[in-house]
Amino acid sequence: MTATKTKSHGKLWLKILAIVLAVIVILVCALTVTVSCVWGNEIATAVSMKQVRVRNDAHEDGSVYTMTVKGGFYFDEFIEQGGVESDSELISFITDHITKGLIDMGLTTSDIACSAFTAQTRDGDRVFGRNYDFSKTNTCIVYTDAGNGRHATVSTVDLQFLGIDGEKDVEGLMDRVTCLAAPFAPLDGMNDAGVSCGIFMSYQGEETVPTDVKTDKPDITSTTMLRLILDYADNVEEAVELVEKYDLHDSADTSFHYMVADATGKSAILEWTNGTDLTDNDGSKRTLKVIYNDDDAHIGEREGEADYQWITNFILQPGYYESDDQKPGVDRYDHIYEQLNATDGIVKDMDAAMDILASVGRRGWNNDDSNSITVHSVVYNLTDKTAIWIPNEHYDDPDARFEIKL
Question: What does the mean pLDDT of the chain come to?
């Protein structure tokens, strides 16, 4: 009798254990499915992040990463809600949507000084070249997929603007989660329609006043405006039409202007101004001024005669400054013009366009501001949707040359 009872109790415990294990397996599977459904794209995006260039502190190089963004990263929802009018609102949107409010995320910005130009190769390809000048920082080349009316894109993001310290690498899960905000902070890029754009400091007003337009239009911030163009514009005209629908709110208590170009050779510089540099101190009163490459004689004789465009860090509107001495980056602006004018805006190839960027690289330039490092140089070929991307002025290092194709 005792032996029979012992066997019965043993079988009962085995059944209970089997049931418990089955419940645990079901819960784990359910949790896995839930996590996959809720954060599947985010997990895949974080896993895709790779370090492709290690830091070199002696040369003040940060690390370089690549990341492929899976899914729509909620930009459709961003547009549908009417955008945002501040960095804090953008942070809230990103936190609520990407991490479902569980993990706080941040965005920061600072003074940046850059150069860019458009040109044509001897083969007829249209190119957009850009230097990003700042201080030592980590960068990420970010790819996004097409979908729901959006174009596939490639863009460059300064990870310092996401709160990743330029003195350390991306380390651990939390840093990778932070980098999920990268699609909302492009500084330059190109889409699969051959549209490219870039952002540039403009130092407007007596103490650098940010543009902060306030009408009844939807709202957009500096880098999300670039994302809007990259995702939805088929050409320059569409880019301008998109931008005209929004009130621009520049970030980080500073001001910016922008350049956009497409595969037809059309380009435009977008500026928001009100009065002259000394009187342009109310960002809410600024209005959009569009300078097209084929309609810019009012800007200056050089600009009117050229089919290409170039930009640095001062406003191009006529009469905005009392003298050239007040124009930040005018020395680089003049140098780029001299390089392009010597060949009527025709460069031999993409490498020749990169040579122009190298000639104004900040490590070898007589700098008049704190932005003494060219963090990256990129030449986007808008015709065949390729790019050459070089970090930290390593123009002669084949291992530092990244060739991109959309």
Answer: 90
